Prior knowledge:
Helices cover 68% and strands 11% of the residues. By secondary structure, the chain is mostly helical.
Amino acid sequence: MDIEARAHSEHPEALRLWLRLLTCTQLVEKQVRTHLRERFETTLPRFDLMAQLERTPAGLKMNELSRRMMVTGGNVTGITDQLVSEGLVERIDVEGDRRACRVRLTARGRRQFQEMARQHEGWIVEAFGALTEKEIATLHKLLGKVKEHATARQETAA
């Protein structure tokens, strides 16, 4: 039974939409996790870390990676250790700060990530295959309005 099954017809439509969004997110994420494991013998957190590094070729400090990925420093350290041992990322000393290091993709890591990203894009496109281009654009626009509203409410509450 998925999350959406918890909703009943008497619940507000907004609640039912929320549960549908969560269910769709979980289903697509499960497919992506399975594909990454089967095709590349890797995990979604490893993919996410490499994606952050791919966007910043000079590399990122560990605390920056942790903040961007919204996970603890310990999680980032563990994933980074694995990727270093596989030759996919490297640690570089930060000049003027002996306690810090930057992490960046190696050439091998960049090549591997590019292949994973290409496949990932295809999996996501396939996940939305039931929608037309116009429907995708409309859904994107509508969810953008939800995001703006939630962001404004969060800023007002702060």
